[in-house]
Structures are given as C-alpha cells and as structure tokens.
C-alpha cells in the first residue's frame, strides 16, 4: 500500500489534483465527423451527390454484360469451354451484385437528402423562435 508523500512543511495533505482538461465535445464531433455539417448550407450539384452510385451501377452493368459475352462464347467456341463456363457465371453474379447495390444506394441518398433538408428547416424555425 502506497503512502501519499508528505508536504515539505510536515503536514499531511492530499497530493495536488491535476487539472481536468475540458473539451467542447459538440464542436469536436461536428468538426471530426465525415458527414456534412448541418450548419453548412452550400448547395451541391447532382453529380457531387450521386457520382458514387452512378459509377457503381455503370461498372456493375459493364461486368454483367461481360459475363453475358463470356457465356455466349462458351456456346459458340468449343476449345476452353470449361473456362468460359466457370468465368461467365462469376462475372454475371458480380455484375448483378454491383448493379443492385448501386440501384439501392440511389433511393437511400434521396431519403437522406430529404431528411437533411427537413432538419435544416426545423433548425431555422427553432433559431427564429428561441433566439428572440
């Protein structure tokens, strides 16, 4: 068991407490957040909002079509038929997965945009009524 050190004058006092560092968690969370801040009202173009799902849909459609071409090659060509029959369904499934993920992503972004607009509207109303 440790005995706290005595002060130089001989009286027993508790050791000096270290100061607690206070932080502004609200501002820290807002700054470090990857999502857009509600406080910024900079309008973004449609391409800035939807470019990722559009790219995923485009790549998915290209891979899906490539899978269709490979499967059709397995029907036409007789040599390397096993390779075409193995790779074709793999490209089909990968392309279909990317295509569906991109198509589902678009309504999610739309819903998120609507919620953000409602949130900004409610915050302006709250600021109007409570900051008088």
Automatic annotation (TrEMBL):
Q: Is Transmembrane helix given among the entry's keywords? A: yes
GO (cellular component) term, any one: plasma membrane
Localization (cell): Membrane
GO molecular function annotations of the record = phosphatidylinositol bisphosphate binding; transmembrane transporter binding
User: InterPro entries this protein is in?
Assistant: PIRT
What residues form the membrane-spanning segments?
54-76, 88-109
Map out region (Disordered) in residue numbers: 1-20
Q: Record's Pfam families?
A: PIRT (PF15099)
Q: Classify the source by domain of life.
A: Eukaryota
Q: What is this protein called?
A: PIRT protein
Which terms are listed as keywords in the entry? Membrane, Transmembrane, Transmembrane helix
- Organism (species): Thinocorus orbignyianus
Q: How does it sit in the membrane?
A: Multi-pass membrane protein
Keyword Lipid biosynthesis applies:
no
């Amino acid at each position: 068991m440790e005995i706290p050190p005595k002060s130089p004058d001989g009286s027993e006092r508790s050791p000096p407490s270290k100061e607690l560092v206070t932080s502004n968690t609200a501002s820290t969370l807002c700054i470090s957040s990857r999502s857009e801040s509600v406080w910024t009202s900079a309008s973004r173009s449609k391409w800035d909002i939807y470019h990722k799902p559009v790219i995923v849909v485009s790549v998915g459609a290209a891979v899906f079509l490539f899978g269709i071409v490979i499967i059709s090659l397995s029907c036409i060509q007789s040599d390397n038929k096993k390779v075409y029959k193995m790779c074709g369904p793999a490209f089909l499934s990968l392309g279909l997965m990317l295509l569906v993920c991109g198509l589902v992503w678009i309504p999610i972004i739309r819903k998120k945009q609507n919620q953000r607009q409602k949130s900004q509207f409610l915050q302006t109303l709250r600021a109007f009524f409570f900051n008088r």
